[in-house]
Design goal:
Structural class: alpha+beta
CATH superfamily: predicted glycosyltransferase like domains
Order of helices and strands: HEEEEEEH
Shape: globular
Number of strands: 6
Helix content: 10-25%
Distance between the termini: 28 Å
Largest sheet: 6 strands, antiparallel, barrel
Number of domains: 1
Strand content: 35-45%
Number of helices: 2
CATH architecture: Beta Barrel
Amino acid sequence: MDDAADRRTRQFPRYEVNALVDLTGTEVLLYHKVQNISLGGLSLETPSIEEVGTIVDLVVNFPDLGEAPLAVQGEVVWANREPPTDMGIRWLDLDEQKRETLRRYLARVTGSRFG
């Protein structure tokens, strides 16, 4: 599927942002740059790739928001082991308070409202 078609079929649009994530899975990965993020999950470039299906603990830091980091569990839904090595993670326990923090952040960085 080409990239434009892939974007049209996504449930949640992805946004490139200034955010860092700490990930705890089979390894602990600190201060990795988020490639993109959405209300459905995030992707990050990292030399340490988890297996698809692995449950990970994430702490997402939004330096532009000035709020406490967002601690959330996720599941690895895709992994690319060829350079650039990266993986996609779907949120698992994004309760309403965490979702609202993420909405505020996305609204701030995109200049639009998220419902």
